[in-house]
Design brief:
With 168 residues, the chain is of the alpha/beta class. It has helices at residues 16-31, 40-46, 54-72, 87-96, 109-115, 151-167, and strands at 4-10, 35-39, 77-82, 100-106, 143-146.
């Protein structure tokens, strides 16, 4: 199996990590594939980079996909959950991964505010993408899931498309 990137993007609180973990579990269980989950927040912590300006965010986004590329080149299917709302990053992915699947979680502000698992909204966090920091929304995602996302259903759809991409 050649490596691949399944890139799950959306605003904070959209369910990226939850879905990514389900996809990794399903890939391992149903497809016996070497899958690995990468989380943007965790990677940021690993390198102690807490620069949430636009420039800081794009720098980290490129770091994430370059790490994913290293792993994909070793045969892993990398499931990356990250905000990374930059056309430049998505274009890099399309050019540099033979198998690339982009998923956009388009979840309303109201739902994300209700979830607020990291208390970003409660604490009025500065530099929130899509709230007080501009985002470049994906225009050509392979799959888009809106608002209340059934994680098991979404993972099934992702695996179906992944299977089509890797069997052709």
């Amino acid at each position: 199996m050649q490596g691949a990137l399944i890139y799950i993007t959306g605003f904070s609180g959209s369910g990226k990590s939850t879905l990514a973990k389900q996809v990794v579990s399903d890939l391992k269980l149903n497809k016996d594939i070497k899958a690995i989950f990468l989380d943007g927040d965790t990677l940021r912590e690993c390198v102690d980079n807490f620069d949430y300006t636009s420039n800081g965010r794009i720098s980290m986004a490129m770091y994430y996909v370059k790490i994913a590329k290293i792993l994909a080149n070793q045969g892993f299917v990398v499931v990356l959950a990250t905000i990374s709302m930059f056309d430049e990053v998505r274009e890099f992915n399309r050019k540099n991964f033979k198998v690339y699947l982009e998923i956009f979680l388009d979840v309303s502000l109201e739902i994300r505010q209700k979830r607020d698992s990291k208390n970003f909204f409660k604490n009025n966090t500065a530099n929130m993408v899509g709230l007080n920091q501009e985002a470049q929304l994906p225009k050509n995602s392979h799959l888009v899931f809106k608002d209340e996302i059934d994680t098991i259903f979404a993972s099934k759809k992702i695996l179906e498309l992944f299977t089509k991409l890797t069997s052709s």
